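Example record for the data management plan.
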Amino acid sequence: MYVVHGLGGVLDFHKIFKALYFADKNHLAKYGESILGDKYICMDFGPVPSTLYDRFKSLHGRKHMSDMELWKDNFQAVPPHCIKATGLVNKDFLSESEINCLNEAIGDCKQLSFDQLVEKSHDAAWNNTAGNYPMDPNAIAQAGGANEDMLKYIELVEENRSTVISAPIPDSYEPRGRVSS
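Corresponding structural encoding:
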């Protein structure tokens, strides 16, 4: 919502996605963390945040997602490919570093045309990813100017994240609040 409001309140998917990509790339390079937390997919006109794209398509009725209530309260579909921010921005969920990177990306993208955004987003990370495949967060950070220490940190975080996600739950595991009988 912050980006949509910052870029004028109503805009096409493409400009939103590119501003978010540039903010994420900058934040990854400087701080080792993504703002959006989404996977970017390599598409013809540049990187696209996968889950956000699905949510925007759902708002437009082109995809079904069951958990869209909050999204419908804060965004409105504007045909054919635009989104209008209808809710209020709550900056309590953003850190100072995230706000700075988002503001920089908004400022950079505000006056750029579709073609200029395409050209700017076709960076080394995009060029080294096959079409419609996820882009490597480390490659995105490297394209953003991350140093070697930051790239090692991002690699370690991604490795830990994938280990936690793929770890099996032991048979003896009981969720909190549940008593064994």
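Summary line stored alongside the record: The CA atoms of residues 9 and 85 lie 5 Å apart.
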